[in-house]
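Long-time lurker. I teach an intro course on protein structure, and each term I like to show students one example going from raw sequence to a predicted 3D structure in token notation. This year I'd like something fresh instead of my usual example. Would anyone be willing to generate the tokens for the chain below so I can use it in lecture? Attribution to the forum is fine with me.
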Amino acid sequence: KMSTVAFFKRNTELADEVIEKVKELYEVEKEYYKLIFDQDVERAVYIKAILDSLSRIAGYCSDIAEVVINM
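-- Reply from a regular --
Happy to contribute to a lecture. Here you go:
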């Protein structure tokens, strides 16, 4: 939501904040990937699918924020 608000308001400060939050999310994601190995296979597959989806969404948010900065 923050990235779209930054886009429509052309708020580069908010866009910078989005990019920082995405970086934080990627660090948390790395920690969760380490935990996958402690799970049974079926649960690990579900967790990985969720993490991949969240990572893609975060990437899209970051892309939108970069568009705002480059406007």
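Some talking points for your students: The chain has three helices and no strands. Helices lie at 2-9, 12-36, 41-70.
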